[in-house]
Write a structure and sequence with these properties.
Elements (H helix, E strand, L loop, with lengths): L2 E6 L2 E6 L2 E5 L20 E5 L15 H17 L15 H4 L32 E9 L6 E7 L3 E8 L2 E8 L2 E10 L3 E11 L5 E9 L2 E10 L11 E3 L4
Antiparallel strand pairs: 1-2, 2-3, 3-4, 5-10, 6-7, 6-13, 7-8, 8-9, 10-11, 11-12
Length: 244
């Protein structure tokens, strides 16, 4: 028996011996919100693939028995391959807290060391939609500090705590729109603590206030107008001491 099933965000399809039945539950690129119908209220369409390869003529009303057969086959295949229960959420499924599944990281803090890198987003404690802080121990040479302390994400979304012209800076990137906070003075030579605190405004993707400290002393502030609500990047990672 040649039988191929499809399911994505509760949009379903089944092909069997030239016949295909499909139903659209939601528009995949509408990532959040919208009133969705019950699964049983989705309208199924039926097409004869041997004569109507472009699926121009819906035969559901003309051949209800064939449609019912394919719907039953879809349910059999979905049960066989653990498709059920269906989940019609989209962006929410990316975030473990929203999806209702465990995270790879337990607790709300994480320790990194120089040289660590290529850390996927799911293997790093999430700082999205919440207040957070970064504390780094640095050893500044005689020529002054320069370069990345820690960075997550990249071109389309992410953040970085770094030093430029000796000063600590923090940048937050939302789809190429960047918000900066910069210290008023350079990090002194020698071993010091650089700390960044982000006070979140509350609510999905809201902004927040940034504060920078050297050894516990306030050295700069800034404002991030909005933040990434769900994901920074599918392929750009977290790196310590560099940005890749």
């Amino acid at each position: 028996m040649i039988c191929k099933y499809f399911e994505m965000f509760a949009n379903r399809g089944i092909y069997h011996r030239g016949w295909s039945a499909v139903t659209k539950h939601r528009t995949p690129w509408v990532m959040v919100g919208g009133d969705l119908p019950a699964f049983d209220d989705d309208v199924w369409e039926l097409y004869d693939g041997t004569a109507d390869y472009s699926q121009a003529r819906d035969l559901a009303a003309d051949k209800p028995d064939m449609l019912a057969k394919l719907q039953r086959l879809w349910l059999i295949e979905a049960t066989k391959y653990n498709v059920l229960p269906m989940d019609d959420r989209t962006a929410e499924r990316i975030v473990p807290e929203m999806a209702g599944r465990p995270t790879l990281i337990s607790g709300n803090s994480q320790l990194f060391f120089l040289g660590m890198g290529r850390l996927s987003e799911n293997s790093v404690v999430s700082i999205k939609n919440k207040s957070f802080s970064i504390t780094a121990k640095v050893n500044v040479p005689a020529g002054g500090a320069e370069g990345v302390i820690i960075a997550q994400g990249g071109r389309f979304g992410g953040w970085c705590l770094y030093a430029k012209d000796g000063k600590a800076k923090f940048v937050y990137n939302v789809l190429g729109i960047q918000e900066f906070a910069e210290a008023a003075t350079a990090i002194p030579e020698g071993k010091h603590q650089v700390r960044m605190e982000f006070a979140f405004g509350g609510g999905l993707a809201k902004g927040g206030n940034v504060s920078l400290y050297y050894d516990g002393n306030a050295v700069g502030t800034g404002r991030v107008g909005m933040t990434q609500p769900v994901v920074f990047s599918a392929d750009e990672t977290t790196d310590i001491g560099r940005a890749e």
